[in-house]
Amino acid sequence: MNIQNNIEKKLLDHFEPAHLEVINESFMHNVPDGAETHFKVVLVTPKFSGERLINRHRAVNAVLKDELANEIHALALHTYTDEEWHSLYGEAPDSPRCLGGMHRQAS
Amino acid sequence: METVDKIKQQIAENPILIYMKGSPKLPSCGFSSQASQALMACGEQFAYVDILQNPDIRAELPKFANWPTFPQLWVDGELVGGCDIILEMFQQGELQPLIKETAQKYASDEAAAQDSE
């Protein structure tokens, strides 16, 4: 399993996020092609409610302890509760309701 | 002196202290650069330690701090956080008052100490 998938799986299992992005930013740094050393994580979960930033980051660091000790060189973290995320970006629009399609009754 | 004692002394003696790669004027890492720029923009004096020049601190501080990466900003004896936290607090307007209040607190402590002499 590559490191990016591994990070995703651990964060999904542990934080049950409403939204998760794990982005490999290694190409932006002085490392060989295909490296998995620099990552950015955007993590939105109700579990962060009432927690200061440092405690949120510590919680993520604890889950990724082995990766941080070995493969990961840099980890940019952006941690939000659902409410903070929605106030930043708004709600994704609802899809329209079904109006009957081909089974619609002629009126 | 043991490295961990050296770290404790630095944190105790410098109320606003950043551990970084390189110096604020010549940073050696993008994250250290952004963090020290935000700190400089707060307009108060602060201390820094270049961990690339101090490999013993680079090895020891992450364990002592329970924080795996650099930069690290320490204010009034407590770890505030790394680059992302520093920038987010700066953008939310939370870093500036923290730095100003800490600088004032220690300035008035010094004044009080001088008065009592």
TrEMBL record, chain A:
SUPFAM superfamilies: BolA-like (SSF82657). InterPro entries: BolA, BolA-like_sf, BolA/IbaG_stress_morph_reg. It comes from the Bacteria. It holds the Pfam family BolA. PANTHER family: BOLA TRANSCRIPTION REGULATOR, BOLA-LIKE PROTEIN 1. Belongs to the BolA/IbaG family. This is BolA/IbaG family iron-sulfur metabolism protein. It comes from Fluctibacter halophilus. The lineage of its organism: Bacteria, Pseudomonadati, Pseudomonadota, Gammaproteobacteria, Alteromonadales.
From TrEMBL, chain B:
Keywords: 2Fe-2S, Iron, Iron-sulfur, Metal-binding, Redox-active center. It comes from the Bacteria. Residues 16-80 form the Glutaredoxin domain. InterPro entries: Glutaredoxin (IPR002109), GRX_PICOT-like (IPR033658), Monothiol_GRX (IPR014434), Monothiol_GRX-rel (IPR004480), Thioredoxin-like_sf (IPR036249). PROSITE patterns: GLUTAREDOXIN_2. The keyword Iron-sulfur applies. Belongs to the glutaredoxin family. Monothiol subfamily. This is Glutaredoxin.
